[in-house]
Amino acid sequence: MSKIRTLIVDDESLARRGLSIRLEKFDDIEIIAECKNGREALAAIDTYSPDLMFLDIQMPGIDGFEVLKKIQGDNIPLIVFVTAFDQYAVDAFEIHAVDYVLKPVEDERLLIAVERVRHHLQQSNSNNHKKRLMDLIANITGQSPAQIDQMLVNNELPNETYPEKIAIKDRGETTLVHNTDIAWIEAAGDYMCIHANDQVHVLRSTMKDLESKLNPQNFQRIHRSTIVNLDKIEKVCSHINGEYYLVLNGGSRLKMSRSYRDKIKHII
Q1: Is it true that domain 165-267 has CATH number 1.10.10.10?
Q2: Is the torsion defined by CA of 226, 229, 235, 236 positive or negative?
Q3: What is the pLDDT of residue 155?
Q4: Is the distance from CB of 117 to CB of 78 less than 8 angstroms?
């Protein structure tokens, strides 16, 4: 069973403890941290990238709503508000909280909240998967999502082809580098450094232009300035802050940003 990695954020220690004990009854809930204020919550989100957060609203310093305003978009977990003040309910749902539970928390009401979280995660995973596929096809075909939907219905999606080689010009000479030989690519200002067969070729290009010439089934961006050949990945090493390092079969070690993790999630 996939675990729902969960944070508990409340300035009252007894409230944190009580909620933690109740959540232990759910086999798929894994409590990865408890935070006593908004500052700790923001740090924990950045460190652990949780799936779910039970969040108190009224806290000294940074309150629950302020925490959400400060979270980076790529890191925002599902939110269940837990508070004694029901006048916040409308505001909570306006910022797309999954649920809103009043203190003292009742077991029956908590079960409903967890069920909503499970349902939301299932729907979100399915929708995100479809969205990623649609975005990928849109980038390849230049069609809008609505046009792609219709093309899928009519079985009219084109077969996109990509060049087998990258032409690199230097001092009157042109070197043809086979795409299959490329291990990884990094941006350096207005130039791209292409690492292939233990050599580095420098190409004047933008990341976007070069990425458009590479088959996304084989090449994926893992950082705003790095593209990797998926076939060259030998190891995937997790890091304490929720990031990963990729070790290529030539020994190169590349950092992967959290925001790009979903692009190669199928191999992690």
Answers
A1: no
A2: positive
A3: 55
A4: yes
Mean pLDDT by 10 residues, the chain (268 residues): 91 94 95 96 92 92 87 77 76 72 90 92 66 52 57 53 84 88 89 91 88 85 87 79 78 79 56
Size of the chain, expressed as the number of residues it contains: 268
Residue 227, H or E segment: strand 226-229
How far is 10 from 63, CA to CA, in rounded Å?
A: 10
Respond yes or no on whether the N-terminal peptide bond of residue 104 is cis (omega within 30° of 0).
yes
- Output the pLDDT for position 231: 87
Per-residue pLDDT at 92: 64
Non-local (6+) Cβ contacts of 42 within 8 A are 62, 67, 70, 71
* Residue 213 contacts residue 162 (beta carbons within 8 Å): yes
Beta partners for residue 196, in sequence order: 182, 199
Q: Which sequence spans correspond to the domains of the chain?
A: 4-127, 165-267
CATH topology classification for 4-127: Rossmann fold (3.40.50)
Q: What is the pLDDT of residue 53?
A: 95
Structure tokens at 91: 């505001």
How many whole angstroms separate alpha carbon 206 and alpha carbon 221? 13
